[in-house]
Protein 1
Amino acid sequence: MFRKHWMRRWGLTATCLFAFASQAADAPVAVVNGVSIAARLMDRNVQANVAQGQKDTPELRAALKQELVARELMVQEAQKRGLDKLPTTQDALLAMRQNLLIELVLNDEFTKNPISEAELKTEYERQVKALKAAGDLQQFQISTIVLATEADARSVMTAMRSGQAFDDLAKSRSMDPSKDKGGDLGWFLPDQIAPAISNVVVNLAPGAVSAAPIQVGPYWHVVKLAGKRPYQVPGFDESKNLLQSAVVQNRRTALLKKLTDAAVVK
């Protein structure tokens, strides 16, 4: 009798404890003007910071809570001003939502069907076969000086004609990160670079500079052909990163085709 009474009391106490624990886990980090900030948002931010080498400390959590509250206040202010209702805002939010969902579906696809070594080797063999079918290929080592305007580019070319070195001008005038290496971009096959540049480069002798500035998008390039060599197909192991990207793109294309074939588009 006593045992049953004790068990009933323990059961009631345990139920209360479990309920309390559940409520604690679901308790918001903060409530800002009546809007709750979910605890999972704090947990996610803590995990992200820990993954970057920080320690999970009360100080870190306090700073993250402050940031979450600040973000919620700014969101509320934007809503108060009606900025969330603007067509441009709605379009931007739609694009962000689409991009996120696309990324999630692709991640799900590759989580359920990871890329295998055999798949990478198949893609490698396909690319090697295509390269061999293209005949003798040449690789070009390209250096460039990137300028904002055609006038700036022509000014650089005038400076070269007066005896200033390409490398020095690249370091002092170029807008491209390659300026730290004197404009050197590395080795490329013709189809790996912008057509406007490749069409010029393939006709240059090693060491020669383009006769005129070349426009690519909004910028102007002064291009130098630093070297030329027969293309050597890289080995499988050193190609893995590029092969991974190619397989991802192939899988994405195949998934999109499957969805398109099954869709009703009017």
Note: The two ends are 74 Å apart (CA to CA).
Protein 2
Amino acid sequence: MRHQTTAVDRPPAVAYMDAATVACNAPSILNTQPWRWRVRPDGLDLVADRSRQLVAGDPQGRQMVLSCGAALHHARIELAADGWATQVTRLPAANDPDLLATLMVNGRAPVTMEALRLAYATRIRHTDRRPVSERPIPDVALQAIAAAARAEGNLHVLTSENVADLGSAACRAAAVEAGDAQIAAELTYWTGRARLSGTGLPAGVLPDHPTQTTVPSRDFGRPGTLPVGAGHDWAAVYALLFGDGDDPRDWLRAGEALSAAWLTATTIGMSVVPLSGVVEVAGTWHTLRRLLANLGHPYLALRLGIADPEQHGRPPRTPRLPLAQVVDTSAMPAPHPLTARGPK
């Protein structure tokens, strides 16, 4: 594990580059990685890259901004693990809606074991779409994940009756999206060989046949090559990320909550799978809103569980774009001490 030097030894400019590098490990919708980081001597800018937005499946940009929020939280965790206090300004420029956040260090701070554990989790976090084991989630684990999410946003854990409603909604959403030629074409692009190199979902991370789960996994339009056993998800817990509003600031905070929950889950050996299809269809989005008693706006459904040891190891990691395509250091004086390193 890195972080053997502290912020005392490392200038902020190096810390910003490291934070941007680690942030590129964050989860994103269909692994589109719709972000761009601008490294400045005095800060770090997070910019949405609309060239990798899902135009058909995510026309509002909700999932794009949520993905960028996860990257923002990853960057915050990296700086905390390096001993920096940080200041975040979200949506700082009214005339630039693609500038989602600026991140600056604000002096030094003690490095906690929790920050180090979460920073390590940014390097090993992954998505396993296979059914989870039949071991129930310990209450203390579920409470830790929920608390991490609620420190950044809102998380509602569903009852068994609500899970049945979520499953029905997911089935309806899948049927609607299967009949939409534009969405089908988008899925084909991001899961096929024609996708932008370093992005998307290769066959090795997609199940080789539909999983037998209460809430169906997303239908990507083609089978993958990831072997799936005969397990079910009887012990899985489902939850909704939600907020009071439905605008980019809310989506950004939801992404930070997603990252916080997922990294915490990773540190305690738990599996997290995001279920985005059910929020992309207007009718099923309203179903989820009713599960929140119409008091919140749903952004994403999550499946939580303990990975099944009979699944024979982790699936492969999804690819990542070269840093030169997502991290801009042109504002740094040349020559500068930053060395581009790939995500660890």
Note: DSSP finds ten helices and nine strands in the chain.
